[in-house]
Amino acid sequence: MSRICPNCASDTIMSKRAIHLSGTTATNSTTAGVGVVRFGGVGAGVASHSGISASALAIDCAPPAPKLVNAGLAAFLIFVLAFIACAYLMDTRALYWAYVAAAVAVVCWLQIKRSNARAIETNAAKVAQYEKEWRCLTCAHTFVPGEA
Ligand SMILES: [Zn+2]
Hints:
Elements: E1 13-15, H1 16-22, E2 24-36, E3 42-54, H2 56-60, H3 71-89, H4 94-132, E4 134-136, E5 142-143
Antiparallel strand pairs: 1-4, 2-3, 4-5
Helix pairs in contact: 3-4
This protein binds zinc ion.
């Protein structure tokens, strides 16, 4: 079975997932240097750098990812802000306002959790579509084999 691009009939086609994987490489480079300073000092240094390097095409063919909010961090910031606002605007009964701020933070935390869950759900459909998509490496046409 041979597949071709429905746009230009080229057979140089790959699934987006395969393009993404083939163009993404873990990098771990080590740079060593020796320097001679005037008046006789010698310095040596080694720098290590690791990360992920991806080609522009691989990035373009990356699987869709949901935009999530860090609920814990957001709730903490909301708590701090709410506490400061309450304590400053009202009076000095700090402990009482700490409870109020905590309640506000918990409500926000639950809301963020809920919206994150929705984002993951929505993203699952996008990923399912993504898994079906192929890319022509000749004309950059994106298509679903058997559909287009
Ligand atoms: Zn093509």
